[in-house]
Amino acid sequence: MDFKKVLNIIHEADPEVFEKISPRRHILKSFTSKVAVAALPLALGSMFKKAYGKNTDVLYETLSVLLRFEYLEAGFYGVAVASINNYPGAHHNAIRKLAEDENRHVRFLSDFLMSTSGIKPDMPNFDFSGGYGTGAGEFGNAFNNYNDFLTLAQVFEDTAVRAYKGQLPRINVTGIIEDAMRIHSIEAKHAAFIRMERRRMGAPVKPWVTYANSDITTIQNNFVQHTYKGENLDIQGSRSLESVGGYAVSEAQVTEAFDEPLLEADLKIIMDPFIVP
User: Fold this and answer.
1) Terminus-to-terminus CA distance in the chain, angstroms?
2) Structure confidence by residue, pLDDT tens digits, 198-257
């Protein structure tokens, strides 16, 4: 990531940032001549940690949560691309595009964390069967069977949409929240595409979530159900939306119109089966 961009983003959020860092301002002015490029992330991380303390901790924790899930998605689509010949009749280019998008998300979050904190979460080893590292989970055929792949992709993409919605309120840096919202919208497009692709393959599924229904009938385990837990709300902003402006709106339609936020604890429950201990 361009370090000038990082500084501009932080300065936009807080014009007095360099006064807070003082007397370390002179260090910023001499980065190019006195500090090795490899040391820039550590230097920046140290200064902003001292200047902001807990605020930077919150931003780091928030982006780390999202990065961990992006690792999962990028790894998943990476294996899918390598197994693409096992999916006759699939939109191969679309799967490659999904993989490219998720890798871009990983690079963006990784670069920002390294630029501002000098540290980022490590990528774990994954068990995409959902077997907690045994390789014997219920999704063990996902890279040999296109329908199984799409089913797991739907779980991941629907989770991603809710994960970003849950973490966005914790991001208080203007430039970063704008980028995170763009990623959120891309994940929503992914989710709609995967659902429509499942429909093309014969699954009775809509492009959106209705109530807390997964539209997955083949697997009904805990983490799949947790992805859709709480999606059946018909109240937004403390009021029911079943009657808006004199128009009758069904409860099902209200639940379809909004994605509910997913918090870190819920995300962990969904991710744990896919991480090798």
Assistant:
1) 31
2) 899 898 887 777 655 556 666 656 677 777 775 655 666 656 666 666 777 766 666 656
Tally: H helices and E strands in the chain: 12, 4
Alpha carbon 106 to its chain centroid, in Å, reads 9
- Asked if residues 75 and 142 have their Cβ atoms less than 8 Å apart, the reply is no
Cβ atoms < 10 Å from Cβ of 33:
6
Nearest to 159 by CA among 36, 79, 259: 259
CA 275/CA 277 separation, integer angstroms: 6
H or E, element range at 56: helix 54-82
Category of 245 on φ-ψ map: left (φ > 0), alpha (ψ -120 to 50) or beta? left
From residue 189, alpha-carbon distances to 94, 97, 145 in Å are 12, 12, 23
**Domain boundaries, given as residue ranges, for the chain:** 1-52, 53-274
Residue 57 main-chain phi, psi, to 5 deg = -60, -45
Q: Would you give the distance in Å from CA 255 to the centre of its chain?
A: 21
Q: How many C-beta atoms surround the C-beta of residue 59 within 10 A?
A: 22
Joined together, the tokens standing for residue 111 give 């670069």
pTM: 0.76
